[in-house]
Amino acid sequence: MSAVLKLFDKEPSPRRAYKSARKVERQYTASLRRVARHIGEIVSGLSPDGEITPEVASAIDMALERYAQVLQPWAGAVANRMITEVAARDEATWFEVSRKMGRALRKEIETAPTGKIMRERLLDQVQLITSLPREAAERVRTLANEAIVQGARPAELAKEIMRTGEVTESRAILIARTETSRTATELTRARAEHVGSPGYWWRTAGDSDVRESHREMNGKFVAWGAPPTLDGMTGHAGQLPNCRCFCDVIVPED
Question: What b-and-e string marks burial along 173-207, b requiring 16 or more CB atoms within 10 Å of the CB?
């Protein structure tokens, strides 16, 4: 049975990787928040006082659907930039490890099947970004229908309509945080399994915001083929919603 060696020899190395990933996440978040703000402007522009009639709801629905369609090329460019930056940082980390270990890992790293992962991630991101205006339109429709069925007071309905941009922004932030981290984990896994890695040590962000279930995973070995189930969701470090944990990968020694 072969011995194993941690991908990162010292604790500061994964910490640097974590901070680097957060920078990419912040950039992606800023882009998606702009989308959310524009959605809020569309809704408030068509219903400046929050009044919602069937005609206004229909106009908002059509405007947001047009925005979703127009958004697609931009979404592809923004998502591609995020994925490319995450992939480049992951690859650089692996090259550094191959140099430190004195192993001929470079060729293996270069031939890892990351292209397929990147293409799949790109398609997923475009779908998620363009879902923002469509989800906002669905929210407005639901509010309008509830107002008719339940007889909601105009002031309450207007308040909720005007919160559409705020609600969308929260969703945009969640997407950016989760998908940046998920992309990093999936690319790392592709390279790790390609060089024969059995798994990784689970690492958390190490602060007070870490969820208890994730804190309990810190330092535990996780096999690539056996992701844990935490709070009813199954996934590796960095793949779960709002998860800021990351993988300290193990690779076989020669």
Answer: bebbbbbbbbbbbbbbbbbbbbbebbbbbbbbbee
Cα separation of 228 and 235, whole Å?
6
CA 21/CA 38 separation, integer angstroms: 26
Neighbours of 148 (CB within 10 A): 10
**Residue 8's pLDDT is what?**
46
Q: Kindly report the three-state secondary structure assignment for every residue of the chain.
A: CCCEEECCCCCHHHHHHHHHHHHHHHHHHHHHHHHHHHHHHHHHHHCCCCCCCHHHHHHHHHHHHHHHHHHHHHHHHHHHHHHHHHHHHHHHHHHHHHHHHCCCCHHHHHCCCHHHHHHHHHHHHHHHHHHHHHHHHHHHHHHHHHHHHHCCCHHHHHHHHHCHHHHHHHHHHHHHHHHHHHHHHHHHHHHHHHCCCCEEEEECCCCCCCCHHHHCCCCCEEECCCCCEECCEECCCCCCCCCCCEEEEEEECC
Q: How many domains does the chain have?
A: 1
pLDDT (tens digit, 9 = 90+) per residue, 222-244?
999 999 999 999 999 999 998 98
User: What is the reported pTM?
Assistant: 0.85
CB of 80 closer than 8 Å to CB of 8: no
**What is the extent of the structural domain holding 15?**
4-252
Q: What six digits make up the tokens of 122? A: 């790109």
Is beta strand 221-223 parallel, antiparallel or unpaired with respect to 199-203?
antiparallel
For 63-91, the pLDDT digits (tens) are: 999 999 999 999 999 999 999 999 998 88
